[in-house]
Amino acid sequence: MSNELQTVSPERESAFSNNAGFKNAMEIAKMLSSSELVPTTYRGKPANCIIALDIARTVGNSPLVVMQNLYIIQGKPSWSSTYIAGTIRARYKNIKIEMSGTGMDRSCRVVAYDDDGKVIAEGATVTMKMAAEEGWLNKNGSKWKTMPELMLQYRANAFFGRVHCPDALIGIKSEYESKDISKTIDVTPPARDPLADPLAVAKEEMKEEKKKETQAMRPERTAWEEEDERKEAEANKKASDGPAPEPPAQSKKITDAQRGRLYAISTNNGYTQDEVKAHIKAYFKFGSTKDITADKYDEIVKRFETKKGDE
Hints:
This protein is α+β, with helices and mostly antiparallel strands. It is about 50% helix and about 10% strand. The chain has 3 domains: about 10-75, no CATH class; about 80-180, no CATH class; about 250-310. Strands 3, 4, 5 and 6 form a 4-stranded antiparallel beta sheet that branches. Helix 10 packs across helix 13 and helix 12 (about 255-270) runs parallel beside helix 14. About 20% of the residues are buried. Mean pLDDT is about 80; it is low at about 1-10.
């Protein structure tokens, strides 16, 4: 057996094959990332450059050509449509783009012929009807509406290339394919029905608030604990700021005794504390019974003096 070292051609060796190859590729990537000739996707980003270098090695093309024609869309690499067209024509010398039909029946396909005019490869037919049914036509900012002829040709080239030049495209889609198949996620909350029952809305909001508290694993406090905390906070504030001015009569909050009377009346007539809170939130816009003002107190009490179900 020969003791000669067997070396691998640098053009065939991946940057990720061994430490030496990776170190060499990283030096090249750093140099490329500092160049103003590379697109902004790679400028100052050697990690992106080293991936582009490995893709260039795989497809057998210049790193700069790959960088100029490889876009990042939705976090995935995508070839420019012109790169795919050029790749096809480098492999098949006699390529024809066949267009036919009108309107939604307008179609396009790419066909390769030999020197004798015999078909040796043909791609799938793309139509405007297909673009509409697949949702490409009506996407926001779609080029299918403004330049349908060009888009038909781009898509026909992509379909042909994926079938007949898979090694050159290595499974990477074209830029417009990536844009067409990307999903737009609507994060806008659903609009609330302005005619919805305010009491039902308030109850639903209270359920959501309780659900969030449970998910956050916050222990539920009793009304007495909340009241103690409130009193302690008020005492601390008074101690540091001095006596607070008396609030206006119309905004003065009810006393603990008045709150207790409200709960007693409502409980006696079949209402739970949650139902009381939901009512005052829906109809009086108070976040809790502690926020009830004196000028609204009698009106609220009157609402709960009627038996539940008789109101």
